[in-house]
Automatic annotation (TrEMBL):
Protein name (Swiss-Prot/TrEMBL): 3'-5' exonuclease DinG
Biological process annotations from GO: DNA replication proofreading
Domain Helicase ATP-binding as annotated: residue spans: 237-509, 259-464
Chain's gene name: dinG
Keywords: ATP-binding, DNA replication, DNA-directed DNA polymerase, Exonuclease, Helicase, Hydrolase, Nuclease, Nucleotide-binding, Nucleotidyltransferase, Transferase
Top enzyme class: hydrolase
EC number: 3.1.-.-
A molecular-function term among this protein's GO annotations: ATP binding
Organism: Streptococcus cuniculipharyngis
Function as written in the Swiss-Prot or TrEMBL entry: 3'-5' exonuclease.
Residues that, per the record, bind ATP: 272-279
Cytoplasm among keywords: no
GO cellular component: cytosol
Amino acid sequence: MVEQISNKYAVVDLEATGSSVDAAIIQVGIVIIEDGVIRQTYATDINPHQSLTSHIIDLTGITDQQLAQAPDFSQVAGDIYRLIEDCVFVAHNVTFDANLLAEHLFWEGYELKTPRVDTVELAQVFFPTLEKYSLSRLAKTLGVELEQAHTAIADATATAEIFLLLMEKIKQLPRHTLEQLATLADNLIFESRLLIDRALAETPKIPLSPSYQLVNQLVLKRQPAKAKPRQLSRDFDKNIALLGLQPRFKQQLFADKVYQGLFEDRPSLIQAPSGIGKTLGYLLPLLSQLFQQQLILAVPTKVLQDQLMDQEARLLSQVFHLSCHSIKSPTNYLKLDAFQKSLQRRDDNRLLNRYKMQLLVWLCETETGDLDDIKQKQRLATYFDELRHDGSLDESSPFFEVDFWRLNTLASQRSQLLITNHAYLLEKSSRDHRFLKKKTLVIDEAHRFFSALEEFSRRQLVLTEVSERLGDLLDKASDHLTRRLLESLDFELKQVIHQPSFSEQETQLDARLAKIRQDVMELAMEELSDLAAVLDPDFSLVWLENSSQLILKSSREELASFPALLEADKLYLISASLQLTSQVTVADLLQLPDYHFDLVEESKSKNQHIWVDKQFPDLTNLSESAYEQLIAQRIVSLQALKYPLFVLFTSKKTLFAVSEELEKLNLPHLCQEKSGSSYALKKRFEQGEAEILLATGTFWEGVDFHEQDRMIQVITRLPFDNPKDKLVEKINRDYRHKGYDPFDDYTLPVMTLRLFQALGRGQRRQDQKSALLILDNRLLRRSYGAKVCRLLQDKYDLRQEKSPQILSEIAEFLL
């Protein structure tokens, strides 16, 4: 089959009047590849004899005047056909280009029957860890030049270069992997499998390269040998210089305080401002002193965990050959037994089979097996849930020695720097009480650890899953009493699941939950142990949360205690804000009985200015739709300044509504959850894929922007906690009991803390500038607003202006 297919490829790109089947071609670009080399190019404009829309003009840069001088398609059809008739037709989204060109050629008397290959699907399979596969994004990621995107010859040339890289990548894969890919390749669009077939035909049957190992019919990348680590200098400035960085006075001051903390026999709390380089400020002095002892670093989110591994940890590994390792929950890792089982199963879903191909290629590349590497798995999340590791491993498994979770666990024990996240630190240390013994623990962004600790102390369960399980138990019930109890339990659960509102009927809910608890206790079945755990009498606070699923949650009445869970040899709590008020610190929330507190004074920022829009109306006087439209209007006016624009929301509902308003205005933007994961959005925004990013959640405190030299940041609303949140209610009760004022001593300082954390997102380098706009006039009209403004004025230049004046001043400030 391969010998009969041409080794000549025509890489084609068309620009057209639209994306529909009846669009007219306005530009053709063709690149001919033969024997792996670009041999010829062809480019021409086409006169469509119709006016272009403003969208097409803006997108392509092509004008009506330019096309008025161009030939009709009929005049060039023969040349195009003769050029490509003996080639394999290649395009980025081949369906559009091939169908449109074939249609135009048909009406001129030429029937195009060439095989078709799509570079989009091939890139998805053979570059499995990329976040996006648009032509511009692929070109940038793979180092392919694309200066005039959306002009046909430039796009065709870039596609040709990517196609050559794909051919080379496929040829480098082990033959066994190619054979497995070939069994699934019919799931690729059109004749895209041709590249796999050709590579397989040309790959000799030789022993597997030492870079790989064959384990039970799966080819895996061998773990590389580690270089011998180098001892860091005791001189902080020397270490910074070796890393190729410039010393900073406040970073040095902070590092000195970290070093001094080693001689304290108490936990060290160090408060230091954002943007001074805290991460290396604590890593370098600790790693230089703890060469024979493991340093564990916990950050709030997996996004920050990946960010640290990709930046600071990679730098330390490259320069000092330090063994740095990132460890997460078992469910983050691929279980090889489960993947092989799925390969042996015949599936008809084309997307699922393409994911199988993608994972086969990825196994030849990954050293960790971390499924977070696969950025587009959300399109078939159920398949990846099937492949996730469950934390258990049979020693008789053929994959025991190479199991990713096992190897990650071993690597975590040997590494000098172990990076994890707050949630997994709690999970791991609760299961393994020796985990922190004789180790130094740094909890970064420590103000956020309190909520992680409280979340960890809760129990939860998806009720619909329990209800489905009850159906199976009822079918198997053998004795009358068990069946009656299961029927009662099933009835009560269904009443809870289908209850329209519990906020107005809490007494009725409590009664149903009490009956459910009684039935579960009498049944005493292993299959219902998770429901029994949630309804354990020690977890007396029980409530329902309804997001995408109905979740039953429970918690103890008292706040969770930090010392009861974590006992490191040496503990550091690091944050930009540890002192919530003159009376309360984060350590008090964590119930640390004794600690040493230190701080690095914060000076007023010259590169960040804040504006409060005093023209923005009182939120209580606005309908939801009017508020959303007003936010969208402000975004449009700010976007005209042509700087990256980062907009933070406190509500997902408002976030999505504003996104819809911008879509109506055809304003390109990235939107959290709609446009991908938090980590992917951060990278796409920093790489300039869109000038506007709408976000919430982790972006308030957990995502930094290092790459933006100039940025505008908008706070749509002050980030107060929801007063109905169970944690907030619990804290309020605890504070009243201790004689504190819940609003003044917790709610307001936590909001202010979150606000300051958000303001620091765009100030991660000394040469960055960011303009910060707050659209919540409660700062100007509420009694607490004056207190918050005074705190802001201590750190920033703060101005209260009307919207037109703000635009003018921001433009001048960011020059």
